Amino acid sequence: MWIFYASISMVSSSIRRVYDKRLTSHFGNVSMPLVINIFSLFTLLPLLFFFPMPHDMWHLSARFWVPLLLSCIIVYPLQVYLYVRAVREGELSAVAPLMTITPIFNIVTSLVLLGEIPSLVGVLGITSIAVGVYLLLEKKVPTKVKWRPEVIMAVSMFFYALASSLDKIAITASTAVFYSVVNMIVSIIVLFVYVYIAGQQNDLKKMKPLFNNILLVGSLLTVSFVGAELAFSYGPTAYVLAIRNGAFVLTTIWAVIKLKESFSLQKGIAIALFFAGGLLLAFA
Description:
Largest sheet: none
Number of strands: 0
Strand content: under 5%
Low-confidence stretches: 140-145
Mean pLDDT: 84
Number of helices: 12
Radius of gyration: 18 Å
Helix content: over 70%
């Protein structure tokens, strides 16, 4: 069952990444996730009528609230800020494959927070992905060291791995869809504050002329997010992330073909290693 939900999340996430790139020209690193999250509520809230709710939603334990608040107030804002920055400053076909290193980070976070231990096949998958990461990042070192978009995306994926482990803890104390809705609402409130701190509140005026595009991205975010949360409730976190992050394959191909971004033999080998590692992790 988790493979089914993770695959749905993978496809919707892949399509969304392309539109993310386009929206970065209209919104800032903080205002963009806020706007997308707001529009995701249009499709997220109705799901409450179709999926199970917690037996006593008004008396949820600290196992629900502590991971939720840590994720929404600290981890998620950092992750999404770095993600938007990486997509804005880098080639989509170069930064998108780095989404697949999330299971590597999640092996550690899930081991510490959830007690999930990878199998031998899982370790082989991690190794394959790690080599792919090296090939993707291996370039001539500039005389003046700076944070390249690929590095920024890698750091973003660490925070995403941490958030995923926190999500699973909270889901075990509630239900996947209920947690998704509460998480989204709290995230919107927090991002509103951060948008004003960053001075990007004027970006919110752009929502009306871009209504259709943002609604599409918000809907895709709903499918991707809820699909991942449902998958977390059934399968190992790192393996779910491996399947979900297979979205990079579709995203990278789209970026190269439609956006005319560069493609090299080294990038091709890296993508192949990512794909092989993802399969090993998924079926470990």
